[in-house]
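Continued from yesterday's entry.
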Amino acid sequence: MSYNIKHGVGNDAVLDLSRAASVINDQKPDICGLQEIDYLCTRSDSVDQSRYLAERTNMKSTFGKFMDYQGGAYGMATLTTNSVVKSTVLSLPDGLYEPRSAIVQELELAKGGQIVFVNVHFDWIGGDEGSASRLRQAKALVDHLNSLTNPIVITGDFNCTPDSPTMRYFYDHGFQFADKGEDNLSFQGEKKSEIDHVIYRGTSEQKIGLKSIRLLNEPIVSDHRPLVAELQITY
C-alpha cells in the first residue's frame, strides 16, 4: 500500500490522523509506504505520527526524516508486518526547496525469501527544474539499489507521470510499471494527475508478478488516493 496522507489533514481541512489509520486497517496491507508524515510538529499537535499509526495498525514503523520542522521533523514512514532485516534512510539529492530521503528496507517475507521495499517522495516542483531534480533523485536511488541482490519494490509519491523522464529512467533500468488502468488519477487536488506508483524489478532467479492494483475511492482523508497492489514473488 502507498498513501500520501498530508500529515493527517483531509480535504475538509480537518486534522484527524485516525481516519488514515482506519483506511490502512481496512486494507490490512503487509507493507505500507506513507508520505507527508510529521514527527512532533506543532501543526499536527506534536504527535509522533509514525508511532501513532504503527500502534493503531499493529505494524512496525520506520520514520525517514527530510528536515527539521516546527519543533520536530517532517518526512515519511514505512509500516510493515514483516521481519525487518535492515533499514536505511537514504539521503537523496536535495529538492529545490526541501531535502529528500528514501526509506530502503530489506524485509523477510518467508524463510529464505527477502525483498527490498523502497518508499519514495520525490521533489514536488513543476517545470524543467523539478523534472531535473526528480531525475537526480531517481539516479541516486538506483545507484544504491544496484548494490543489492534481492527483488525490489518501489512505491510512493513520485510527483511525476508514467511518461516522465524520471519514470523512463526506472524503466530503462529494468523496473516494471504496475498499470492502474483507466482509473489512474491518484492526486485528487485541483489538478488531478497520476503521480503515485508501484514499480518493481525481479532478479534472474526471483520473479515478481502483479496480481492486482487499484486506487481506492477515498475523497476526504487526503488529497491523494490510497494505492493498493498485490504482488506475487517467486523464489
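--- second protein ---
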Amino acid sequence: MTTPQFKIPQSVLVVIHTAALEVLLIQRTDKAGFWQSVTGSKDAPDEALAFTAEREVAEETGILISATGAPSPADLRDWQLENVYDIYPVWRHRYAPGITRNTEHVFSLQVPRDIVVTLSAREHTSYQWLPYHQAADLCFSPSNAEAILQLPARLRLPESPGPT
C-alpha cells in the first residue's frame, strides 16, 4: 500500500509575455473555459521557486528557459510577490486533509512573439496570445488577472490604455 502523494501548498504563477505586452494564456483540460498563465506547485518542500517556475513553464508550454536560443534565466523575473488564497473546492482533494490555502509566488517571463509553444495535452487544450488587458479579463483566477495588469509597472513600461 502506498501513501497518497499530496500537492504542496506552495506554487508559482508565471505570466509569459512579449515585449509588446501580449500575454500567453492556456486553457485547462479539466475545466473548459478556464484560461490562465502557467501555474504549478513545488515537487518537494526544498525545491527552489525559480526551479519550480522553469520546470512548470517547460512542462506546460515546452518553452525551455535555459536552452540555447530560448529565453535565458535572466528573462525569468521573480516579483517577490506572494498571494495567499483559498484553494478552489474542486481541487482540494489534491492536497492533504485540512489544507485549504495555497501560497502562490509570482514570476514573469519575457519571450519573443514567435516562440514555439507546445502544450502538455494532459493539462491544457489550447493557447492564445492576447494584449494584456484582454488577457486579464479572460483569466478565471483573480490573482492571475491582477498579476497581468501589473505587468507595465513591474517591467517599468508606460501603461497602455485598455479597450475603449
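The first strand starts at residue 10 and ends at 17. The radius of gyration is 16 Å. Will compare against the first tomorrow.
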